[in-house]
Structures are given as C-alpha cells and as structure tokens.
Write a structure and sequence with these properties.
With 301 residues, this protein is an alpha/beta fold. The protein has twelve helices and eight strands. The protein has three domains: 175 residues, 3-Layer(aba) Sandwich (Rossmann fold); 60 residues, no CATH class; 34 residues, no CATH class.
Length: 301
C-alpha cells in the first residue's frame, strides 16, 4: 500500500533493475512512470518484465499476479518532462558512470516537483560523488536494490541527506514488501555487495589464473554451500557491464583494516570469554541466537 506523500514513482532507466523496480512499485499500488532515452529499450520492456516476473515466481520470490495489467498501467516515455510530472520519488538506474548520473539527476531535479526525493540505485559509487550536481542534496540518497529484487534494500546518505529523506525511503521500502538497511556511513558496495565483491573476485581469479573454467567454479560453490547458483551465474544476474564498470568499487583495492584494528575489535570479546558458539556467546547468544528467529531477516525494530 502506498505510503503518505508518495503517489507517483519515477524510474529512470529501462535496464534490468529499472524494469524490476517499476514492476514491483506498480504491484504495490504506486503510479509508475518509466523513462529511458532509448525508445527501443522501452518497447522491449513489457516482454522483459513478463520474463522476469515468471522467473521470480518460479524461484518463489514473488507472485505479482496479473502482470499484463501491471505493465499496462506503467507509463513509458522518452520525454523527461512528461516523466517528471507529479513525481514524488525518483529511482535512477542508468549507466554506472558518475558523469552520467550527475547529469541525469541535475536534469530531473529541475523537472520534478520541489518536494520530490531523488535516489540512485548505483551498486558501487558513493552518493557524495553524485550529489554535488544537485541544488538540494538534502533530498537525495542512494537507495540500492539487488538483482532479482531480493528483500534487502540499502540506504546510503550523501553529503547532506537529511533525516526526513531517510525516513521517507524507509517507509517506501517497507511499503513494497522489502527491508531497508541504513548504512552508518558511506561505502562503495554497501553491505552485501562488499561481501559479494570478495567472493566474485576470488572466482574471477581462479578462471583468469587458468585454474578452472566458470562452470566448475560455480559447481564447486553450489556443491559445498547448497546454494542454487554460483558466482559466475551471480555475475550474469548483476550484468557483466556492471561488473566491468564497478571495477575497484566492487572488488576493492585497499586493505580494509590493519591487524591492529582487528585485534582491537576482537580482544574485548576474548577478555570476556565470549569465543562464540562453544562458550555460549560471541556476536550472538546461544543456543537460540537472534539470526535464527523469524523476524531477524525482516530487520524489524
């Protein structure tokens, strides 16, 4: 059910993520406009959305009901003024290049109503790298969806994002049946993508180094973890162009912490005898840790 203050959602970019965000927003009762500079991309959108909806249903992630009716209700346009009219929330999923994102946000800030909240779905760039292009960066943040529209949606502030903007985004994310995760500070890759980046980097190193082919890397991962897909299938889901463009922002080039910093973080637990499951307490308390409770994945406060 739409939240107060948001009636129309404008999705910029008719790529994989834009198509999914627009569809799930329409399913949850929002008026949706889908904008792209490419008429060809917009013409291909309905068939791609039907294909994704069917795949999501088969995977048990979502049943969007009458998808044809949802698609028919989405306004597709290459006209930026028409797209921006009466928009309350913008979700941008254009090319993963900071110059492109700055240009797009500067344009739609001018065209959208003054109260409109602008967001970027960047998977690797910092919000603060984009918001210098805006006159009102307090109404801008990163709102990052994951491929396949898994439940997690990251929120990352820019330089001047205000608390009201964050609260609006949290309510919207909850309203479409997903779980908001607000970053304490900026980091390229957010939470899951930072974890995923290390996993993908290792997979790529095995293939580039000549140790295995992509299929065997995926088989190894799936056989041991029991997951339904491996790292190279995951990269297909992300989009190989996104993997390429994200570069160091996804895979990391710096050392995340020093041995001294790690020791400083862990030592208090050791001093208290909190070694993990074998002592009954570590980051969680056992035998009934919080991560096994029904509401844990929902992030209920």
């Amino acid at each position: 059910m739409p939240v107060e203050g948001i009636k129309k959602v404008l999705v910029l970019g008719a790529g994989t993520m834009g198509l999914q965000i627009s569809l799930v927003s329409a399913y949850r009762g929002y008026e949706v406009a889908l904008y792209d500079i490419s008429e060809q991309a917009l013409q291909a959108a309905p068939s791609r959305q039907r294909m994704w909806a069917e795949r999501a249903k088969q995977m048990g992630r979502a049943d969007l009901g009458d998808v044809g009716k949802l698609i028919a209700g989405i306004t597709c346009t290459t006209d930026p003024q028409k797209a921006a009219q009466n928009a309350d929330l913008v979700s941008e999923s254009v090319a993963e290049k900071v110059e492109v994102k700055r240009e797009v946000h500067a344009l739609f800030e001018k065209l959208c109503p003054p109260a409109c909240v602008l967001t970027t779905n960047t998977s690797s760039l910092l919000a603060s790298a984009i918001d210098p292009a805006l006159k009102h960066p307090e109404k801008f943040a990163a709102m990052h969806f994951h491929s396949g529209l898994s439940l997690l949606v990251d929120i990352m502030r820019g330089n001047k994002t205000n608390d009201h903007t964050v609260e609006v985004l949290k309510k919207y994310i909850r309203s479409i049946g997903m779980v908001p995760m607000v970053m304490k500070k900026e980091k390229g890759g957010y939470l899951y993508n930072t974890l995923l980046g290390s996993h993908l980097k290792a997979a790529l190193s095995l293939v580039i180094g000549g140790y295995a082919d992509p299929q065997d890397v995926d088989r190894a991962w799936m056989l041991v973890t029991g997951q339904a897909f491996g790292p190279f299938a995951a990269m297909d889901g992300i989009g190989l162009n996104i993997v390429r463009d994200a570069g160091e922002n996804l895979f990391g080039a710096e050392v995340a912490f020093t041995p001294e910093q790690l020791a400083s973080f862990i030592e208090p637990f050791l001093e208290r005898g909190e070694l993990g499951m074998k002592t009954g307490k570590g980051f969680y308390t056992y035998p009934e840790p919080a991560f096994q409770k029904p509401d844990f994945l929902q992030g209920k406060e």
